[in-house]
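Dear H.,

Thanks for agreeing to be a second pair of eyes. The structure we're designing against is below in token form, covering all 91 positions.
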């Protein structure tokens, strides 16, 4: 998860927006397998809506906006994951 976020941020830093989108998608997909983990933490979580909006941006050619939105949501979901599993994650 964090590796995908890091790679996506690196791609964005060099304005490889398509690469950033692909990295964010991969991270969200990987995390998605685990995201059901924290239903109680997800109360009020609108990240699915934001990811959908980013996908819509991508479809109409706003690749930079899509990348930024997806990376932001990957970061958010990663923080939720870390918070939920804080006692089990090795530093």
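And this is the sequence the design step returned. I haven't edited it by hand at all.
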């Amino acid at each position: 998860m964090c590796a995908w976020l890091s790679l996506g941020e690196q791609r964005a830093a060099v304005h490889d927006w398509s690469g950033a989108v692909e990295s964010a998608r991969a991270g969200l997909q990987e995390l998605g397998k685990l995201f059901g983990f924290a239903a109680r933490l997800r109360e009020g979580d609108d990240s699915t809506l934001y990811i959908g909006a980013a996908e819509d941006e991508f479809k109409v050619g706003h690749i930079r906006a899509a990348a930024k939105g997806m990376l932001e949501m990957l970061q958010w979901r990663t923080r939720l994951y870390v918070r939920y599993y804080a006692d089990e994650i090795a530093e």
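Two observations from my side: Residues 21 and 67 are 5 Å apart (CA to CA). The chain is about 70% helix and 0% strand.

Warmly,
E.
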